[in-house]
Amino acid sequence: LAKTTQPISMDSYEGQEVNITCSHNNIATNDYITWYQQFPSQGPRFIIQGYKTKVTNEVASLFIPADRKSSTLSLPRVSLSDTAVYYCLVGDQDTPLVFGKGTRLSVIA
Amino acid sequence: EPEVTQTPSHQVTQMGQEVILRCVPISNHLYFYWYRQILGQKVEFLVSFYNNEISEKSEIFDDQFSVERPDGSNFTLKIRSTKLEDSAMYFCASSDSYNEQFFGPGTRLTVL
């Protein structure tokens, strides 16, 4: 399984764009990159998934460079309700989700 | 929007007792999972279930654990003889593929 490394925590002011970078140097050819969000005492919630280049949905964008050894989750104009833990997961479609410690994002008014 | 539901939200039990945690996955989903999260720690995979059988399980999922889909809608996790270290949030998840998994709100299990 590809190991992921992401910052333990980040702070941001409301209205700013937040970029959380995850490194996964030993990502395999069949691996996808998936991000989940978790609020306290709740189950993780899927945010976005990608394989290469850029993926955008109504919540976030995911940027993946050509070598796929890292990825960046971009949250536009965060609000206080975006305060959560964000997990970067790497794996193919046949492996269970392996969560790391994630990045604790704190949004400040 | 369809969602995964779990009952009870909080279960308190004595060490050595059996507990059954219940989940109702999203109705058209085919893949089902249990995870746990000890307070302040990572979300850990326990087991995945597809086509009425376990497809994968972690080292945590030992003989004390079992899963069942008894009636086509519920998905249960049974812990036969609970230990103090089983205290955790248990999350059920379901998916219609190996991609996006939808998690339930969790059951907080407290073993005394």
Throw out a few tags for this protein.
heterodimer; A: 109 residues; mainly beta; five-stranded mixed β-sheet; four-stranded antiparallel β-sheet; 9 strands; B: 112 residues; seven-stranded mixed β-sheet; 11 strands; globular
- Level of helix content of chain B? under 10%
Q: DSSP helix count of chain A? A: 0
Which parts of chain B are unreliable, with pLDDT below 50 for 5 consecutive residues or more? none
Mean pLDDT of chain B: 94
Measured by residues with Cβ under 8 Å of the partner chain's Cβ, the largest interface is: A-B, 20 and 24 residues
Can you give the helix content of chain A as a percent range? under 10%
Order of helical and strand elements of chain B: EEEEEEEEEEE
Count of DSSP strands of chain A: 9
Give the biggest sheet of chain A: 5 strands, mixed
Compute the average pLDDT of chain A.
Answer: 94
The neighbouring-strand order within the major sheet of chain A is 1-9-8-3-4
**How many separate helices of chain B?**
0
What Rg of chain A is obtained from the alpha carbons, in whole angstroms? 13 Å
Give the uncertain stretches of chain A in residue-range form: none
Strand residues, percent of chain B:
over 45%
Instruction: Label the overall shape of chain A.
Output: globular
Structural class of chain A: mainly beta
Which outline of chain B best applies? globular
Task: Characterise this structure.
The complex is a heterodimer of chains A (109) and B (112). Chain A is mostly beta strands and 109 residues long. Chain A has strands at 9-13, 18-23, 32-38, 45-50, 53-56, 61-64, 70-75, 84-91, 103-108. In chain A, the strands form two sheets. In chain A, strands 1-9-8-3-4 form a five-stranded mixed β-sheet, with no helix packed on it. Chain A is globular and about 40 Å long. With 112 residues, chain B is mainly β. In chain B, 0% of the residues lie in helices and 51% in strands. Chain B has strands at residues 5-7, 10-13, 19-24, 31-37, 43-50, 53-57, 65-68, 75-79, 88-95, 102-103, 107-111. In chain B, the strands form two sheets. In chain B, strands 2, 4, 5, 6, 9, 10 and 11 form a seven-stranded mixed β-sheet that branches. A four-stranded antiparallel β-sheet of chain B has the order 1-3-8-7, with no helix packed on it. In chain B, a hairpin with a 5-residue loop joins strand 4 (31-37) and strand 5. Chain B is globular and about 35 Å long. The mean pLDDT of chain B is 94. The A-B interface holds A 32, 34, 38, 41-46, 49, 87, 93-94, 96-102 and B 4, 33, 35, 42-45, 48, 56, 58, 89, 91, 93, 97-106, 108.
